[in-house]
Write a structure and sequence with these properties.
2 copies of one chain form a homodimer. By secondary structure, the first copy, chain A, is of the alpha/beta class. The first copy, chain A, has helices at 7-25, 30-37, 41-53, 121-137, 176-184, 193-204, 264-267, 269-276, 291-303, 307-330, 349-357, 376-396, 403-412, and strands at 57-60, 75-78, 84-91, 94-101, 106-113, 145-152, 155-156, 163-165, 188-192, 213-218, 222-228, 231-232, 335-338, 370-373. Chain A binds a DNA duplex (30 and 30 nucleotides) through helix 1 and helix 3.
DNA sequence: TCTTTTTTTTCGAGCCTCGAAAAAAGTGTG
DNA sequence: CACACTTTTTTCGAGGCTCGAAAAAAAAGA
């Protein structure tokens, strides 16, 4: 069972809460923080004094032009130099890393083209360590790097330490976190890209993407990130959300994963290409259908009725039924479509909605709204960054008082 | 955002934790409670002294035959008279209510046959109020009723106050909680039966059903309760878990819900009956296929190859694909099959497993184990009871200190 | 310059948990 | 039967934390 609350937890949690409030609000005054957190002014005063003394927060001079009478509010902000994170995004043939300061500003970035499908596991790991080393070297004035977040296309384990399976590499169960921690002695997390996209959406537009929503990546494969009750929803063992491999039609079209009838086998880039070009649905999926190819097919589909348009209809139907099955479990929620497929959503929307209407999801159709955003890369990095920063807020700057440490120090004494 | 932790929350939460520990352990000593909760002996001593003084807990004399040296442990137990709950289970043509004492013992029970499908909404509500009144009247020595839990087949809202849709009645969006609260002035919850079954399984066998598992009810319809991270998983608006209405085959067999291709349209009682008797899969579903009919079909299926055996194979396939799609989202987990269909699982297991193997779920097949339990009624009541009791533990005997109250009393002063 | 207004800090009160020590309530042993 | 031993439970003081009230600070208005 879950453990009782110790007295020290109180301060710890409220510290984390203050940091979170400042991160969200930007430059709030103490009074604003008190209002948002529900804590008293005196408590906020005490906690922020601590955090300022520790160099985690800082007062920013003369930022709030009050115009009101009374003592002016003094704005508090995150100290950009208090820490830094490295956010690494690994996708097909592309590796990108950036250092980001504690207050969220990008300090340096480094991008590389590589051949992920043909690289050995060892080369891939070395390349990651190397790009991190480079980007850190180019950030001499940054605060200390206290967290490295890696976002990857594919299935990660629920502890966020390993890449279990990925379409971008033939290797399985790669221990990214262990290896990178070994190299830098900094805690590392390995997360699914779509989960990070969901995280980013919440930071970007908290109005729309509040506590329950779904991000779907329409690209070579189909990915999904689900936010439930304000938390990224993961499976019990893995990052979960294998929306693309839900079975749409038992025994149906051949999927890249070797199974038949997955949603992806109708709606992934290669599937759209395969259908638009009149190939058999059981023909082996082709690698390397780029975003440009999809855009070209979409152009032709918009121009005239034909196999291209039908291909998008088929894709929409698969997505719609998949969403309907998803909604059978978690109800409808706002949906963000991300990636190249999102730019062709006009060609799919009708069939998506028709399919949903044939499922339980149709009951809540008023709750379903679609929003599109083509640039998945940027979102992925943002989400990875914000999650790494939030980790520092809660786990490093508001740490657990460790029983084990107490035991050890009392042994020494 | 979530609100800061006030000082009073500390005691409140630790009180709830102590009550939970006692409920789970039965008759623990203070030392045992301290060990389980991680709180210190002195804290447990103080909290339990409070709870005993309030008549919520009680010391039980001479229960722990120690045989050890030293001061004997004194056992602490829930005071059976501290409170009571009424647990109501409403299913097709059947209404059942029971009063249960604070320590979990059944005090009185009342069962009724009725005709849920032909009753008016008003009659249904009246009948519920009436059966509660009766069973409470028959429990004169019980503690005060502080919570009423209603478990119903069908979709409830996520606030647990309304029955949105149910196969047992033609009426929709019935405000059970409001109506019953009006009659008894006691807080009421309305929950999905399968969610309660999941709750019950965790109390019954915490070893096997720990934090992540799935309960599936195979009956006239197909229901599901999912436990994730130790909590019943619900949708964002409703009780969620409409496993039976995930689409197995787009455009396929006609379901009771009017849609085509739902899992239920292949695996519900009426679907098995329809297939076993050689009817067309688009023939209108028949009501009133009882458990006996299914058992008879199962007998014939076990005796010889034929349409009966094929019907169970088809059902298994639908369940298997459904589970596979579910596992794509939440990973594989142990499964409990409940209801009459569970008694025919021997006829379905092979096709269930074959279907799962064709989905992403097949990856983690080692995590999939099936357990069967025919008596759904008993489980539903148990789950509803335990949830109501846990509500009293946390919400009534360890209540929030209410800001509104403080404000009001300061206004009066 | 003095008053008003608003924010922030200070200070004492009241809880809470914890560890250590004391008290309690048995068993074993000579 | 007395006394040592063991284990559980209670008591007590220390140290933290949050809170409300009061004080201090820092401006705008008169």
């Amino acid at each position: 069972m879950s453990v009782g609350i110790r007295h020290d937890d109180l301060r710890r949690r409220n510290r984390a809460m203050v940091l979170g409030a400042v991160r969200r609000a930007g430059q709030p005054s103490r009074t604003e923080i008190a209002a948002v957190t529900g804590l008293s002014n005196s408590t906020i005063s005490a906690i922020s004094a601590d955090l300022i003394a520790e160099g985690i927060l800082a007062e920013t001079k003369g930022e709030i032009a009050s115009l009101k009478r009374g003592r002016p509010q003094v704005a508090i902000a995150l100290n950009a130099k208090a820490a830094a994170v490295v956010s690494v995004v690994l996708s097909l043939d592309h590796l990108s890393a950036a250092t980001i300061g504690y207050s969220g500003e990008v300090i340096a970035q480094e991008d590389r083209r590589l051949h992920t499908l043909s690289m050995s596991e060892e080369e891939l790991l070395r390349e990651c360590v190397d790009v991190i080393r480079k980007v850190v070297a180019r950030s001499p004035n940054a605060g200390p790097v206290l967290r490295i977040g890696l976002a990857v296309q594919g299935v990660t384990d629920s502890a966020a330490r390993r890449l279990l399976w990925s379409p971008i590499t033939p290797h399985q169960d790669i221990a990214f976190a262990d290896r990178i921690e070994e190299a830098f002695a900094v805690p590392v997390s390995v997360e699914n890209d779509c989960n990070m996209i969901a995280e980013a959406l919440r930071w970007r537009d908290p109005e729309r993407y509040r506590s329950d929503f779904i991000a779907i990546l329409l690209s070579h494969g189909i990915g999904m990130g689900v936010m439930l009750k304000g938390k990224v929803f993961t499976g019990t063992h893995s990052s979960g959300g294998e929306f693309g491999h839900m079975i749409h039609r038992p025994g149906g079209a051949l999927c890249r994963c070797g199974r038949h009838g997955c949603v992806e086998a109708y709606a992934g880039n290669y599937a759209i290409w395969r259908n638009a070009n009149g190939h058999d649905e059981n023909e082996q999926p082709v690698d390397g259908i780029g975003d440009d190819d999809i855009r070209a097919i979409a152009e032709r589909a918009r121009a005239a009725e034909g196999p291209e348009r039908a291909a998008f209809r088929t894709a929409g139907e698969a997505i719609g039924y998949g969403l309907g099955n998803l909604f059978a479990l978690i109800d409808a929620a706002p949906i963000a479509l991300v990636g190249v497929g999102a730019s062709a959503f006009d060609l799919m929307e009708t069939s998506v909605r028709q399919a949903i209407a044939k499922t339980v999801g149709g009951l809540h159709s008023e709750a379903i709204s679609f929003d599109t955003e083509a640039n998945e890369m940027q979102l992925t990095r943002e989400g990875s960054t914000m999650q790494a920063l939030a980790f520092i807020d809660t786990e490093i700057f508001a740490p657990q008082t460790r029983d084990s440490e107490l035991v050890q120090s009392s042994r020494i004494a």
